[in-house]
Amino acid sequence: MMWARESFGPEVVWAIEDCRHLSARLERDLMGFGQSVVRVPPKLMAQTRASARTRGKSDPIDALAVARGFLREPDLPVASHDEVSRELKLLVDRREVLVAQRTATINRLLWRVHELDPDHAPKARSLDLAKHRRILGDWLATVPGLVAELARDELADIIRLTETINALTKRIGQRVRHVAPVLLALPGCGELTAAKLVGETAGVTRFKSAAAFARHAGVAPVPVWSGNTAGRVRMTRSGNRQLNAALHRIAVTQIRLNGLGQVYYRKRLADSDSTTEALRCLKRRLARVVFGHLQTDEQNRQQPCQPAAA
């Protein structure tokens, strides 16, 4: 900090490549000193480096590319650290890891049971229920051999993982009901989806507009026209895919429900859109709605309602 102040003065903007699992600690330290930090997307840095006259890759070359990327794009997001969204993201990520582990363990267990006796193979998704796990466990206890022993161990792992997953799900639900009640009121948005949206957004105040949020979520259309094809667009392949998936779940659910989402989707189909195009338009519309709900929840957290005077 002394070097930066002596070299550049007190007003300094730090441009950092947005590798948050590595750069988060540096961002916090700089912000603790009252510094302004801007995040440069790795893709922008790589494109800037590739277009430069300097050949190769090194830390100084990357640092120069980050600086040039920041100067080229003046509206890059400013770093901010929202503990509410960060803790939700940590919980949701942990739950998803455990769900993946449980799925892999269930698949191995099914192979073992099929080897022992295909007639005792449980039905699809039935091992999520304690009743079916108990029935399978009682049968495995009567079967001798190493395969049955491994199957019993894997069943115990599934029981342990399920208990942890259920506890995390309950904890996530309690938190998201407290921090995002307005978002939860959106049709098709359950507790896990709302938690995913809050966690991946990482602070809605860092987006200057709903359009910027939609672009970050990968639902803003990309122009692909020239000459006689004016106005043609396609779906983007960039953006935060976790946010995109959450918006997709809400959109698919709203299409099944009677409501504004279904009405809008059918209107797009009546206007000669394909099902893919209509879904894309609905997701873009939902991004605007979700952005507004996130803003409202953020404002309510910052300025809680005061009780009326008696």
From TrEMBL:
Residues 182-265 form the Transposase IS116/IS110/IS902 C-terminal domain. One of its GO terms (biological process) is DNA transposition. Pfam families: DEDD_Tnp_IS110 (PF01548), Transposase_20 (PF02371). Residues 8-109 form the Transposase IS110-like N-terminal domain. InterPro entries: Transp_IS110-like_N (IPR002525), Transpos_IS110 (IPR047650), Transposase_20 (IPR003346). GO terms for molecular function: DNA binding; transposase activity. NCBIfam families: transpos_IS110 (NF033542). This is IS110 family transposase.
